[in-house]
Amino acid sequence: MLFSSAFAVQAQDINEVKKQIDAEQFQKAKTSLKSIIKSNPSQGKAYFLLGNIYLNQSVLDSAKISYDEGLKAKEAAHFNYIGLGQLDLEKNDVTAAKAKFESAKSEMRKKDFEELVYIASAYMNNAHPDYKAALATLELAKEKNAAEPQVLLALGDAHYGDKNQNEAFSAYRNAFQADNSLIRAKVQLGVLLKGAKAYKEAVAAYNEVIALSPNYGPVYRELAETYYYWALNVPGRYDQYMKEALSFYEKYMAMTDYSLASRMRHADFLILAKDYKALEIEANKMKELDKVNPRILRYLGYAAYENGHIDDAIASLQEFINNPSNKVISLDYLYLGQAKIKKGTNADESAIDPTLFQEGVGLIKKGAELEPSVVDGLGEFGQNLYSKKMFKEAAAILELATSYKESKSFLLDNYYLGNSIYFANAGKAVADRDMEALKKADVAYGNVLTASPETIDAYISRARTNSLLEDDQAMIKYYQEYIDHVNAKGAEELAKPTVKTKLVEAYSTMGAGYANFDKAKAIEHFNKALEIDPANKYAIQALKSLQ
Q1: Is pLDDT at 9 greater than 60 in this prediction?
Q2: Are residues 456 and 515 in the same domain?
Q3: Which of 415, 448, 466 is the last residue of a domain?
């Protein structure tokens, strides 16, 4: 009787820990699990759940230690094979993982299904998720208990990951109907709406959750993320919705815990929200908690750069990147690269140290090799250099920005790239021009005109670039396209002084090009220039030399 009572208490403790994990109160759950293990080391599932928390927080070595210890336990030790299998999946060693999953399954009783749910979760929650494998595993769980809420919840996650929204919705709905204490299932119904950009409806769904369970922390994180995406999609309400997002994230933190892991997740969100003042405060708080955790250097580096503390940014990010045990991401290289360039820029922003500039560009390239989308937004950095007339440097940055074709500013970045290269070469003798760069400028203007044929000035710019390339045929072609587009707009457009100036340039430069192979055409175009500007000295002189 005493043994039975102790077992019931332990099962109750484990169930309480599961609720803490579900509510993302990871620090509290870790403390509870360590207490359970200390009082009863035979509880294999306690080791397994502790390992899962470490795994969730990317502390892989601690996760492995916990799983290995759990295999020595007397009760439910086999769950730890699942944890070790997930570690194999992190390394993309599917064969080793499957072998460990089979070891876990071999110790299941006839009606057991929990192991299958955890195996499915392992397939989903790793660096190389396999939702098909998760679904196949959950089909086995359904054979044992098709109405089990935890199985239905996991099915929802698997269908969601597999981008099957309808099946995910049904599974989450059924899970909540089967067990209305399963709050995460109801939260996920809101997550599906968020993914469909139905932000208003998602917020309404989350408010229903809060009405049922106001202390369930994860719903406030989902509200924060929903308002963040809503802010991005409704620019007119960006400040209002971003304020809501940050407020809800603070509430999420208060409802969960202020552990280092939670603070890191908060820091990741602050980076998304571009609240760098708050990020710097959070990073320094994390430093007080754990001076040696390497990720803190990342947050300190990002915050220092955005807040203008360039030396601190370089020191933090350089230390983080130079440690071979750290997993460096594209954003680390982007920030360090930009910091190096800022460091090399003189006080009046008129010149950049060439060595630091090249170091910076090289680092940004490394970032783009890891994740091409990291340069989305880099165009603004290049345009700032352009505005300071540092055309060669601007071109190097804008070339990186335009390497990501899905960028929101792809068109504008191409236009500035073309201009940067053009102005870097204009006025130079033919032998001193960078012809390869000018060819890139021609392509950049071509990208602009392909996407937006009515960007009329791009025809002029492309013609000027081909003039520097000494390609008379292409130069004539693009000036003519400019002329055709202007004429199509009618008399009002043709009467504008700026348009007249450009037409004189077009006809005169075309005349000079035709002079090399068609004298009659050359005379015709110089005369057209004089019709607009009868006193144009260049056209008058050119006509005299042709006659």
Answers
A1: no
A2: no
A3: 466
Whether residue 509 is found in the same domain as residue 452: no
The secondary structure of residue 407, as a DSSP letter, is -
Buried b (16+ CB within 10 A) or exposed e, 201-216: bbbebbeebeeeeeeb
- DSSP class of residue 43 equals B
Q: Do 452 and 485 belong together in one domain? A: no
Number of H helices, E strands in the chain: 30, 0
279 falls within a domain: no
433 and 391 co-located in one domain: yes
State pLDDT tens for residues 380-393: 999 999 999 999 99
The 8 Å CB, 24+ separation contacts for 338-345 are: 338/305, 338/364, 338/381, 339/301, 339/305, 339/310, 339/313, 339/314, 340/314, 341/393, 342/305, 342/310, 343/310, 343/311, 343/314
Query: What pLDDT digit, counting tens, does each position of 294-349 carry?
Result: 788 898 899 999 999 999 999 999 999 998 888 899 999 999 999 999 999 998 88
Task: Clarify whether residues 415 and 389 are in a common domain.
Answer: yes
CATH number at residue 416: 1.25.40.10
372: DSSP letter: G
Residue 492 — pLDDT band, cuts 50, 70, 90?
very high
3-state DSSP helix/strand/coil percent for the chain, to nearest 5?
A: 75, 0, 20
Residues 102 and 63: their CA atoms lie apart, in Å, by 20
Q: What integer pLDDT is reported at residue 10 of this predicted model? A: 55
Distance between CA atoms of residues 476 and 509, nearest Å: 8
Using 50, 70 and 90 to split pLDDT, how confident is the model at 272? confident
461 shares its domain with 503: no
The answer to the question of residue 37 being in a domain is no
- For residue 258, the model assigns a pLDDT of 77
Question: Any residues with CB less than 8 A from the CB of 308 and at least 6 apart, and which?
Answer: none
Are residues 459 and 507 part of one domain? no
Distances (CA, A) of 271 to 243, 279, 302, 303, 413: 14, 7, 8, 9, 24
Say what the alpha-carbon torsion angle 410, 413, 419, 423 is, to the nearest 10 degrees: -150
- How much is the pLDDT for 507? 97
Which of 401, 435, 466 is at the close of a domain? 466
Q: What percent of the chain has pLDDT over 90?
A: 82
pLDDT of residue 327: 86
**Which residue segment(s) compose the domain that 507 sits in?**
471-547
Specify the DSSP class assigned to residue 276: H
* 429 located within any domain: yes
Q: How confident is the model at residue 7 (pLDDT cuts 50, 70, 90)?
A: very low
Q: Which two tokens stand for residue 58?
A: 């990317």
Whether residue 435 is found in the same domain as residue 481: no
542 within some domain: yes
Number of domains into which the chain is organized: 2
How many CA within 13 A on the CB side of residue 386? 24
pLDDT of residue 296: 84
Tokens of 361: 């560009």
Neighbouring C-beta atoms of residue 363, cutoff 10 Å = 22
User: In CATH, what number is assigned to the domain containing residue 522?
Assistant: 1.25.40
pTM surpassing 0.85? no
Contact by Cβ (8 Å): 62, 50: no
